[in-house]
């Protein structure tokens, strides 16, 4: 029984060599449709994108016969524009950078890494946070504590102790011993050897927690009367708002 054109099988594997195909290529990238040429897609031979369209076909097609790439389609237009005209995007830099990494387009990756947004993130912020012990683990710990405290509540708070020097770390531990709280629920950040201040680290914590989809705010934690140190020197309260 023959299959009519109205009932094409979904996701067909392309047969034959790509060299025999038309130089005009139709793409379905995550639901966004593009038309370009093989030479454009293969402009950088060492890239993953070029390899997709070199030699034996490595892609499936959609029901209309377009090559299908299972990636976010919205930002592929910037990738395509770079391949066509060497124009480096000035919008959606972080998202385009992720796609450039996936497609392994090395010249675009290097140019994007020189942009203020990527340079600041990779060279400045990430390098600073790499010097803060257990930073990523502490972010996850904060979230676990906040979720555990969220039962039947609109907000839940997490106490954070931030210390920049070894001396402050010792003072913080002394302060913890006098605080009327469960010490296991206090998340400690630091010390670190880098220029950024405590307020810079607090900004980073808030930025990275919010990047995971949480709504939070931060304020100095005021301890009970008679506390030996000014608690705001070390302790801050992150409020997670759930609804």
UniProtKB/TrEMBL annotation:
Q: Which InterPro entries match?
A: BTB/POZ_dom, KCTD7/14_C, SKP1/BTB/POZ_sf, T1-type_BTB
Specify the BTB domain's residue ranges. Answer: 23-120
Pfam families membership: BTB_2 (PF02214), KCTD_C (PF25611)
Which CDD domains does UniProt cross-reference here?
Answer: BTB_POZ_KCTD14 (cd18371)
Biological processes annotated in GO: protein homooligomerization
What is the name attached to this protein's record?
KCD14 protein
What organism does this protein naturally occur in? Scytalopus superciliaris
Gene (UniProt): Kctd14
